[in-house]
Amino acid sequence: MLGFVHVMIEPTGDKFFAGLLVVDHFGDPHELRVTKAVQTTTVQKLLWGQRLLSHILHKVILVPLAEQLGSQVEAIFVDRAEFLNGRQDLSVPLILLESRADVEEGAQSETSVTVPDSKGNGVLLLSCAPGFETDLEEGRRLVIEFSKTCYPLEPFQRIESVLKDLKPQLEIRAGAKG
Prior knowledge:
The chain is an alpha+beta fold. The chain is about 35% helix and about 25% strand. The chain has one domain: archaeoglobus fulgidus dsm 4304 superfamily (archaeoglobus fulgidus dsm 4304 fold, 2-Layer Sandwich), CATH 3.30.2170.10. It is built from four helices and eight strands, in the order ββββααββββαα. Strands 1, 2, 3, 4, 5, 6, 7 and 8 form an eight-stranded mixed β-sheet that branches. The chain is globular and about 45 Å long. The model has no long low-confidence stretch (mean pLDDT about 90).
């Protein structure tokens, strides 16, 4: 089982909606967790400054979603680098997965590796948090295996569609008390 986390950020930059989708190696969904609307406050913006986005994605979204999972996942894939700060709070690999036309196949660094993009759009770049480089080989293996049955970025699109569909309910849940 693989986990995929995606966040939708309102154009104002102060409201967030996120989901974690668990799929099997065929891409079939097994579990979905979503957040209520996360609204930042003026005080949070002042206190956190430029670190606010990373804080929201790590502490307010990623970790709580992962802790709610009923399914055991082999890794969690994210589509924003700011999520990677959450790796120290997880017991499974956390991998940033993105399509990159500007990176050559085979390129790698201490914290990133590539795999061919089956859609022919360059490569899929996998990155990890510093200090968790061992996550890369497991991430690479899982992406290569998963890409045999499902395009690896497609679960992020599913989450986006679900969040758009559920947005009115998620905003109501955010306003509900108790």
